[in-house]
Design brief:
Layout: H1 11-24, H2 30-37
Helix pairs in contact: 1-2
């Protein structure tokens, strides 16, 4: 597979990526994303 990279992530990291994408796409608020990801809103 030329030109393809594999990125290894834990299930927790995958969950955070999905939540961040939802916040970027304005599906959920930044505040809700921070709450779900268990990080600060900043």
């Amino acid at each position: 597979m030329v030109g393809k990279d594999i990125i290894m992530m834990s299930l927790e990291e995958l969950r955070r990526v999905r939540v961040i994408k939802q916040a970027i796409d304005k599906v959920i608020t930044q505040r809700k994303a921070a709450e779900v990801a268990e990080v600060s809103e900043r």
